[in-house]
Amino acid sequence: MALTLVSFKLCPFVQRSIIVLKEKQVEFDIRYIDLRNKPQWFLDISPTGKVPVLQVDDQVLFESSAINEYLDEEFSPQLHPADSLTRARNRAWIEMANQLSSSQFGFTMAKEEPSYHQNIDKTHAVLQQLERQMGEGPFFNGPEFALIDAAFAPFFTRQAMVDNWFSTEIVSGYPKVKNYGEQLKNRPSVANSVVPDYDKIYHQRLEDEQTWLYLNRSG
Predict the structure, then answer these.
(1) Are residues 93 and 201 in the same domain?
(2) Which pTM value belongs to this model?
(3) Domain-embedded: residue 79
């Protein structure tokens, strides 16, 4: 079986699938595209025009949740909880992880101050709920890493860089969430799920876009 993941270097949803592949130690190829100049071959295989896309031999999967569930069913170890209720709750909270990534994109890429603050407020709203949800940790369900953790991890990867550059410290008021983020960032599958020059590419993107955060919070 040949697996090829089609990616954009900054995409948090691609990062989720890379984390799952690395957790399972599955061999795969990765093919990068520029989403601002999508090649026709990519548009031909991606119904949504988005990444990730996973090519499995001559078949194509899209949407990170579907890709990750396929990988979890096909390769060991299983990362989705065995208990059906816990598994369903995890699927529901993956949607909250989607919202967190969306609001993070919103405040980092906002061009105007009102949009920046609106998305900051949305981010805090999700973090407040996540703080109430977290137990003893270190991961979402407790001691075992799961698909839900792969879904939340990209937020913390990016937030660590944003905090370092702009002193935003968004998670500092949420001790359980902050510890959760540290545990995720230190996990090898997460630490090795982005390209080596990710921080430079990410910072350059904010500069190129002349975002409100870059223009008003940089040192």
Answers:
(1) yes
(2) 0.96
(3) no
Closest CA to 13 of 97, 131, 109: 97
Single out the residue in 49, 74, 99 at which a domain terminates: 74
- As a whole number of angstroms, the distance between CA 6 and CA 168 comes to 32
DSSP classification of residue 157: H
Rounded to whole angstroms, the Cα distance separating 204 from 148 reads 29
Do 69 and 176 share a structural domain? Answer: no
| Other Cβ atoms within 10 Å of 78 Cβ, number | 12
Per the structure, the count of domains in the chain is: 2
Q: Where are the beta strands (DSSP E) in the chain?
A: 3-7, 29-32, 53-56, 59-62
Residues 25 and 97: their CA atoms lie apart, in Å, by: 24
Pairwise CA distance, residues 114 & 190, whole Å? 32
pLDDT, tens digit, for every residue of 105-158? Answer: 999 999 999 999 999 999 999 999 999 999 999 999 999 999 999 999 999 999
The answer to whether residues 145 and 164 belong to one domain is yes
